Amino acid sequence: MQTVADNAYIAYRSLKGRLKDTTWPPELDPLCALLLQKIWINGNSIGIAFLRIQLALPKSTLSTALRRAEDRDYLRRYPNIVDSRYVDVALTPGGQRVAAAVAELITELEVDVDDAAGAGARFGFHRVAFMLAAMDEDSVI
Closest Cα partner for 36 from 94, 102, 123, 122? Predict the structure, then answer.
């Protein structure tokens, strides 16, 4: 019998495999895909400090992922218009296209998780997926 953690890990590995099997740019890794999807859901922009708190990622991991996405012209950073001490990030037009496709792919995976493990597992998918993507990231660094 598989646990919820087993099913979430399988879903994450499925995300990784589906990213490789689709027409994504080859450099789109799961952590970058999940970040783009999170920014997309938030309305194409989000404060980096808020994003870090929401995802519970270490600063260095988030910074590296954001830099990779920025280098690939998926997003851009800019000072927060209310308080210039903070930095926000917004999707570029290319980033919006990729994020929309990633959001659709992740929705499909959530349905798969829901079908395989029940509705409760679906709600934990994002947290576990980000954790596993960050662990993959740390093993590469």
Answer: 102
Contact 102, 40 (CB under 8 A): yes
CB environment 85-113: b (16+ within 10 A), e (fewer): eeebbbbbeebbebbebbbebbeebbebb
Q: 18 or 50, which is more confident?
A: 50
Q: Where does residue 9 rank: exposed (0-12), middle (13-18), buried (19+ CB within 10 A)?
A: middle
Buried b (16+ CB within 10 A) or exposed e, 19-56: beeeebeeebbbbbbbbbbbbbebeeebbbeebbeebe
Q: CA angle, 141 as apex, 36 and 55 as ends, to 5°?
A: 35
Q: Is the separation of the CB atoms in 8 and 121 below 8 Å?
A: yes
Judge whether residue 6 has pLDDT over 90: no
pLDDT at 91: 96
Residue 85 main-chain phi, psi, to 5 deg? -70, -20
Radius of gyration of the chain, Cα coordinates, nearest whole angstrom? 15
pLDDT digits (tens, 9 = 90+) for 34-90: 889 889 988 888 999 988 888 778 888 889 989 999 999 999 999 999 998 999 999
